[in-house]
Amino acid sequence: MNDAELVRRSLAGDRDAYADLARRWAPRIVAICHSRVRRADVADDLAQETFLRGYRALKTLSDPAKVGSWLMGIALRAALDWLKAKERTVVPFSALGPDQPLERLLADSKECEAVVADDRRRLIAEVESLPQVYRQVVMLYYYDDLTYRDLAQLLGVSPATINARLTKARVLLRERLTDCRSYTDDAR
Are 79 and 47 found together in one domain? Predict the structure, then answer.
């Protein structure tokens, strides 16, 4: 069933149809939110907010076939709203102070898991710190497993531009992660 039919069924009161739309578009919506706010936990919340706003405003959608781009617009607005919110505060790691104990690793397996988790956090942090154009294409490419052609159509650019952006993003990530690894290796 295509998007337009799911929208029509949703408007007719079929909640399962909207759930299908949400499942279909969730990876892209999360990726767009993540590319804007640079925090995975917040991106998930903003995706839920996007689908809630979309459900409430579904009757205002003029072309049911364009529900995906409509939802992505809502996601962008939700992310911008979050970024502008005055209530949002960030506590820097340095504010935790020296008297905040960290759990000690008890076994080699625990240490290995911690290293993998640390590597993941470092990678996510580096992806989140990429410039917007690179961050967005990386998130969409890896979250939603889209082809270059699909990404180009979605973002309104050529596949060659997608290739260039992904290549540049990978180079930047490789440089940053190599620099981090060299630094931590030197510290040992």
Answer: yes
